[in-house]
Design a protein that fits this description.
This protein starts with 14 loop residues before the first helix and ends in an 18-residue tail after the last helix. The protein has about 90 residues and is mainly alpha-helical. About 60% of the residues lie in helices and about 0% in strands. The longest helix is centred in the first third of the chain and has 30 residues, at about 15-45. The chain is flat. InterPro entries: Mic10. It is found in: Mitochondrion inner membrane.
């Protein structure tokens, strides 16, 4: 096939790659934050209920941060601070 470029998808529009990256990011952050919550719960708390709460809190932080970054990848959620616009006379 000479000169066909229909198979090449720009990274901006490659939804399959974005979904793969988001699933990977979510799984990693969920596991890492849950492990951090487990160690924190074992280190700071005696009661099993508070230890499980620390694990759940860590898992929630991991899922929330993954959701925020994935929504930015899909351009559906604006960043918290807009880019700085230079004032007149400043470059």
């Amino acid at each position: 096939m000479t000169g066909e470029k229909s198979d090449i998808i720009m990274p901006k529009y490659d939804l399959g790659a974005k979904w793969d990256a988001c699933v990977d990011l979510t799984a990693r952050r969920f596991v890492y934050a849950s492990v951090a919550g487990t160690f924190g719960g074992l280190l700071f708390f005696r009661s099993p209920v508070t230890r499980w709460a620390a694990v759940a809190f860590g898992a929630g932080i991991g899922m929330g941060s993954a959701y925020t970054e994935c929504s930015q990848k899909f351009d559906g959620f604006p960043t918290k601070f807009p880019p700085a616009v230079p004032k007149e006379g400043q470059e």
